[in-house]
Amino acid sequence: TTYIVTYLVSGDQIREPAFESVSSDLQDEQDDAAAHQQLWDYFAALIPLENRGSLAEFSVMTDGQDNVLAAVAQTYDDPNLWGLEVDIADTQDYYYLSYTLVHEFAHLLTLGSDQVPPSEAIFNNPDDNDIYLNEVAACPNFFPGEGCSNSDSYINQYYSRFWLSIYDEWNEINLEENDDLYYERLDDFYYKYQDEFLTDYAATHPAEDIAESFSFFVFSEMPAGDTVAEQKILFFYNYPELVSLRTNIL
Questions:
Q1: Of all helices (H) and strands (E), which one includes residue 245?
Q2: In terms of Cα–Cα distance, which of 169, 232, 226, 172 is closest to 202?
Q3: Using 50, 70 and 90 to split pLDDT, how confident is the model at 80?
Q4: Which of 11, 119, 202, 233 could form a disulfide with 212 if both were Cys (CB 3.0 to 4.6 A apart)?
């Protein structure tokens, strides 16, 4: 991934661009401030201002076409604040862009500090496995990675309903260090529980599962709930604030 420029987010505005050193073949993309603004304006139009208060940075990057379109992550300075990055090479398809931006917003919605208070110990020592395991052991709820989720958080409730019976099996696969074997076992896991997942990507992590399900909740009709996968969409209808948010996004 090559980062092209990072802006600070201030409400509906982006400002103070920090330009990275890029190769000559990316200079046009770096100079195209209008394209950066258009991407940000589209995201800001999709997601209401009151639902993205934790978003502090917006980055334009690229890893070439048809790889990672967008991602979110905690900022380097504050675990309570997040950054959004979008690949400028993959933004032509607005259907795919819209779905992906809502998916990434779902991470902000379900992993933000009001839902998952961040662990300062993990944030300050990201490579210390002992600290990570100690934090996990001390957490009575689902631990998505950034911290211990609140009991009533969306992701803990989702985990308790849909992942308790399969988490240990998934986690054993997740700890596999051989990449080829990991993907082979993950594929087997997905096909074993295929009627429980809306996409194959949803099987990679509970946090990805809830983000995929939220995107389907926003963009698809209300299902009957005949499968576990459909019940995951119906999960969000239990929260009036999310039903209202869905209406606003649409």
A1: helix 240-249
A2: 232
A3: very high
A4: 202
Six-digit token string for 178: 């051989």
Helix residue ranges, H only, 143-227? 154-162, 167-174, 179-192, 206-219
Question: How far are the Cα atoms of 1, 13, 19, 135, 219 from residue 22, in angstroms, in the given order?
Answer: 11, 24, 9, 39, 36
What's the whole-number mean pLDDT along residues 219-226? Answer: 98
CA–CA separation, 114 vs 153, rounded Å?
8
Residues 6+ apart with CB under 8 A from 139: 147, 148, 149
The C-alpha atoms of residue 65 and residue 173 are separated, in whole angstroms, by 29
**Three-state DSSP class for 84?**
strand
3 state SS of 165: coil
Rounded CA gap, 195 and 116, in Å?
28
**What does the alpha-carbon distance between residue 73 and residue 71 come to, in Å, rounded to a whole number?**
7
Asked if residues 12 and 44 have their Cβ atoms less than 8 Å apart, the reply is yes
Q: In 3-state terms, what secondary structure has residue 154?
A: helix
Q: What does the pLDDT read at residue 57? A: 98
Tokens of 177: 């260090």
Amino acid found at 221: E
DSSP 191-212: HHTGGG-SSSGGGG-HHHHHHH
Tell how far CA 170 is from the center of its chain: 19
